[in-house]
Amino acid sequence: MSRQKRVAVVIAKNFEDIEATDPIRVIEEAGAEAILIGIERGKVEGKKGAVLEARLTFDEIDATTEASFDALVIPGGGAPENLRIHQPAVDFTTRFVASGKPVASICHGPQLLISAKVLNGRTTTCVNKIRDDVVNAGANYVDKPLVVDGNLISSRTPADMAVFNQAIVDAIS
Prior knowledge:
The strands form 3 sheets. The chain has a 7-stranded mixed sheet with strand order 5-2-1-6-7-11-10, with helices on both faces. The protein is built from 7 helices and 11 strands. The chain has one domain (6-172): 3-Layer(aba) Sandwich (Rossmann fold), CATH 3.40.50. By secondary structure, it is an alpha/beta fold. Strand 1, helix 1 (17-29) and strand 2 form a beta-alpha-beta unit.
């Protein structure tokens, strides 16, 4: 029997609620386990009142733990801005993208990818407010509900949740 898939979901204060809770729901409905990783363990508040529990911190992740994840999800909102200034989160993201495993980001999520310096030459989408930032990081920005470029999966806003969630499920299936 194959092992249960594990998906790392990185969160920080002010995450966009539905961009974290909805992917977590579909990951679990697909039979995988969503592991929430934060700067600190414990309760993390979203922009609109959702509260999620970070089970691990970036400082607690070693090579074995990291290798056990099958995908990475980066919700948007204010969380990526908080994560990108935490070097262990940036380093984790850099290594994860390099691993070739699926990395899904939505809305402001690519801010973490910018700081991880992994967007140069890649095609991505995001919320239009950070379009110039991804272009300045060397990415080819396209305004589409879903963009898949190799192991990078991206969407723009909560309006794109259905195709974003389906792409995550497809990537871990």
